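User: Watch each token:
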Amino acid sequence: MVVEVWIAQNLKRQALSAQLLEKEISSAILRASDLFHADVGREIAVLQISEVTIPGTLYDHSYFQNIFWKHLDLDATLEWLRSLNHIPAKEARFTVVFIGESLNDRPSPVLYKGYVEPPFALVRYSGDPINMIDVILHEIGHLCGTWHNMGGEKGRYYTSDAAAVIKKNCG
């Protein structure tokens, strides 16, 4: 499965080095690809890595327990992505967007590490490679049609027939 990757411009500015950030993200995707292949027999390949500017109007600020939080408003971010009328480049199936902040789904206080709105998967860059790999796999699982199993069983895709669903929907 081929994806394109967008990295939020402000995330690149926060990084010690834009090249190091791209290398960390590429490495996480490569490791996620290895696990994805072992689980469902499919690889994840990156077609291209691009920079995207997220409008400042999508950011929200709040205070919780005397701590200042900056996050992306989920609804506004999804509306912005839809307004782009984006079709993934060439043979890429999806676009994975790496952001620096959590996503807030108001009015609930939930902050998400990732979210899917096809053809996009939003992934929060945490600096923790293992966490990032899990979020990448989780969101790509959603892009390929798997959903949470609320029965309490923990896993990357959560549905018991994940491999069959992914093979059917994502080749």
DSSP finds five helices and nine strands in the chain.
